[in-house]
Amino acid sequence: MSDRQKGLLNAVNVVFPKCNQRFCLRHIYANFQNAGFRGEDLKKCMDNAAYAYSEHKFNIAMNDLRAECQEAWEWLCQIPKKTWARHAFDTNCKTDLVVNNLSEVFNKYVLDVRKKPIRTMCDGIKDKQMMRWHRNRESTKTARWDITPHYSEKLEAEKERAKYCKPIQVGVNLWQVTSGQQTHVVNLQVHTCGCRKWDLSGIPCNHAISAINKGKRKPEDYVSKFFKKEFYVAAYEPMIYPVPGEHDWTKTPSPDIDPPAFKVKRGRKKEKRIEGKFEVPKPKDTSRMGTITCGNCGLQGHRYTSCLKQLKPELALRKNKHVPLARNSNGGGGATTPAARTSHAAPTTTPIAGTGGAGRGAGRVAGRGAGRGAGRGVAPGAARGAGKGRGAFSDPRQSGPSTSTAPSTSAAGRGAGGRHSGCGRYFYASGN
């Protein structure tokens, strides 16, 4: 994928004559604007055509663009659709990207060494890659995931959408899946779906996952091998060996290669990227720390890790460090089985028959529910003054009724079975 730079196009055609090429949609849209076709309606039609997975939706978007502006439709038709339209991409490369964000990420990765002399720049890039490859090799030894984290999150999102699909089995691996007003054919043997999303991305779409679940299989087994842990380990298995410094280089009899002569221009050298003519400038931050936005609910001020709402399936997987979550046996969409909570039963106590105050006192110390119920049932008209811990206390560790016959005193006063004797009996029985 490139930005349609003429030098790159010629070089790729010479070095890789049979390689399929893609053009970045963002750069195409920049040229689209420079040609005089601007406006939100034209951009929306162009995006719908580029991001469509099926040819039917692509034709609808192109017809809308033609109705908006005939000249814009003619300009866009001059570019081969297999280079920018998602539905016409080659399925050999398991990615549905229409922009060259991967190239931009690498460009930022080498930004600090890119402006240095050629030899220093190559050494800097080599050192960065050497450390990165070693770090990724070591991380796979303790990794608990079987599918790479990014694509495991995409798989969880498709599982959530599979709840709204209705699969009908036609053959051993052939299914008809209905989703809303659309019906697609899913072939589990060749890993294809009529929506072409599975064909392009390598991740089972929601239609395929509904058929897989209906057949009592695992969607993880149908993910492309390029996103499995085995291929990830194999990608970083080769080692980038260190290179000795210039002091250990072997002296050759051939003449030295001098750097090309260049003229240093006056003034300060430009380091910032030249912005496009119609590029919208980014808003300037007034503070050093930007506002945090939750990826789960969309509100500001907190992250998804502390969100009070139920997490999305992909975010729940990320929070669990991409370890597969246990699901309910009823085949629910994204519901995960919560961890079992251990409940500690309160000791069973039976208060001694007496006034309502005695029952209420026993309930407050040994067990509120049982004590209140017993106290109210035995003597509902008893005064509250005698209930705060007065009277006899039963042993909290006894499961049966107490055999004590200690009488309770008057309901109005503080009787002989008062606070000190009751609390002492309780602490003695509890072992404190």
From TrEMBL:
The keyword Ribosomal protein does not apply. Residues 354-390 have a biased composition (Gly residues). Residues 399-413 have a biased composition (Low complexity). GO terms for molecular function: zinc ion binding. Coiled coil: none annotated. Residues 251-272, 324-432 are annotated as: Disordered. Residues 184-216 form the SWIM-type domain. Keywords: Metal-binding, Zinc, Zinc-finger. InterPro entries: Znf_PMZ (IPR006564), Znf_SWIM (IPR007527). The keyword Zinc applies. PANTHER family: MUTATOR TRANSPOSASE MUDRA PROTEIN, POLYPROTEIN, PUTATIVE-RELATED. This is SWIM-type domain-containing protein. It comes from Triticum turgidum subsp. durum (Durum wheat).
